[in-house]
Amino acid sequence: MAEAHQAVGFQFTVRPDGVDFKLSQENGVLAGVYPASPSSWLIVVIAMMSSLYIHIDPSLGMMDAIKENLPYRDCMSVQTRAVLSAILFATGLWLFLIYLLRYTLKALLSYHGWIFESHGKMSTSTKVWLCLVKMFSGRRPLLYSFQASLPRLPVPSVDDTIHRYLESVRPLLDNEQYNKMELLASDFKENKAAQLQRCLILKSWWATNYVSDWWEEYIYLRGRSPIMVNSNFYIMDLLYVTPTHRQAARAGNVVHAMLQYRRKLERGELAPLRALGTVPMCSTQMERMFNTTRIPGIETDFVQHLTDRKHLVVFHKGRFFQVWLYTGGRHLLPSELETQFQRILNDTSEPQPGELKLAALTAGYRVPWAQARIKYFSQGINKVSLDAIESAAFFLTLDDEPQGYDPAKSNSLDSYAKSLLHGKCYDRWFDKSFTLISYPNGKMGVNVEHSWADAPIVGHMWEYILATDCFHLGYTEEGHCKGDVNKNLPHPTRLQWQIPNECQNVIETSYLSAKQIADDVDFHGYLFAEFGKGLIKKCRTSPDAFIQLALQLAQFRDQRVFCLTYESSMTRMFRDGRTETVRSCTSEAVAFVRAMEDNAQRLALFRKAAEKHQNMYRLAMTGSGIDRHLFCLYIVSKYLGVDSPFLTKVLSEPWKLSTSQTPQQQLNLVDINKFPKYVGGGGGFGPVADDGYGVSYIIVGENLITFHISSKFSSPDTDSYRFGLHIRKAMLDIQALFKPENDKTAQNAKYVHLENGKKHI
Predict the structure, then answer these.
(1) Active site located where (predicted)?
(2) Average pLDDT score over the chain
(3) Predicted structure pTM score
(4) For the segment 242-253, what is each residue's pLDDT rounded down to a tens digit?
(5) Which amino acids are annotated catalytic?
């Protein structure tokens, strides 16, 4: 959040919601006219043409008016003019119906009452609403079909936002501090808020989303600190299964699966993600998954997205190789990719001067990297080679040290996570949309640049890749990729560099600064297998609320104080939506934690705190969060030159506990009840505060929760392993609250079973 202080201005992002004929990609026309179809245009034309022959005018005279005003009508016969006017009217009517259907669907999707209903209970109005949404959603929607029908993110009222903000900080401030904050908030609301709010509402009318472009620019792209650890995140491979231990073969299958996914993505053939199987989520972030690079700048970076790229760049032992992904107009087969990667692994050439740690430029501070890029990489072979990297579909690292989860090694997840998060600081291209990492033992992973998308987007792709790799492509008995080996493929080509000593000094400086950051990361990965979502649901509570309250309890036991807590929630039910913050440390959560320590009415307070958390999460999802609204008001204040002590104070508050849940089973391609070993390890991120924790948790199936905990060794107050122990104890202590209740439920069920048995006898 501190990066938002660098805001000095803003720009509007305007994109029309009209009929979007994306002729540059297959199926673009289908998505552009959805929920109608091109064939429906023909039906309307035929209907209008038929009306000419039965002498009925459904246009109420409009076709006659068109006929009389046609250009060059004197050169046409009466019949030709009649046919042409019918076609023009039919086309106009068809377009009008498309707009009508879209705006009707947009109005329906603006209803969010269903989110606030109790789990398992659905009101009659919501059932009717769901039927109407299904009716107007059309059949077989493509990935981008719903984009123009998604509602815009609403701007909350200033009164509501300030009220929720003050409520969120009340448990963290003493009476004197809280009274000062109330005065700041009151002064802001009475004197400055109205002007800023008007500007924000004006932007919301013109932009598709009043938050997302500023969020990308000011939170990510304007940051001048290293993005390695501080911004990028990672995703792990399957926990218990390694399909093959041959590095080149595994990379071949995974890269081929990625090319398949990219083709589906570009054609829009993937099904849109839908809540309740009906409510569509925004797919905008997926557009920049491939062929995308963050380009460094002096004051701000920018995201470069290109169309279909036909190569990738591979890093191995300090050398960069270019590998073409197509031959004869088709993708390389997995066996062909394996051959290419094995050739790279077998290559014994040495790195060129300055090549070994070149990628450390992307791991260090942004300004030196931007300056070096201009000075040393803007011409000659350095420019050609850098262009090859930045224009590649993605970046692949063939690592030389095995990683992965090993139950026999207590710190295997820790080492694996640190490798994915930062590696050696020079063996990942941290500016690429993602770096695919292949290990010698067959394990894989991904390091992701954060500005272009959030974790669920990459998780969606990764689920498809792992399922395709294991269940569709497969391997031979020897562990090689299936298919014939084409030995006539041109060999991968080395990228050439001429890096002067001055540039090598810049590279070394970036490397040392990045290594200092990497060495300070204290990481602990923990598999909580005592119980999972299945048991939590039997307690009739939200799994996310359960875990968040466990984190609050663990945080208090670890630090003996409460702190401002960040939980990421998505806003993808709105056009171009990204995330919102749920402030998890509520007064209700604090009361529950204190009750756990004092042995008071714990279960009742837990239920109250869990319900409060769920309500806050729902408000965040439906555009009524706190932090994005305040962030945008702050940006507007900077643009207008309005000084606001209240907004400055809000935007400077540290998040000492930053949490996030990464969703699993978005695609449901693998039945994990049937294949329980085929579950992913999830992913994580670096610590947000110098003296705080970053916690990513993944609810895997019914019986497993993975925790990825990060902090800094340099902080004397934090210890990731210790915090993991506190989380485990907190989870078990909360679960113990429900044992009497669950035992009673089990006894009642047993009694009912016996009674039914007696009746049956």
Answers:
(1) 450
(2) 89
(3) 0.89
(4) 999 999 999 999
(5) 450
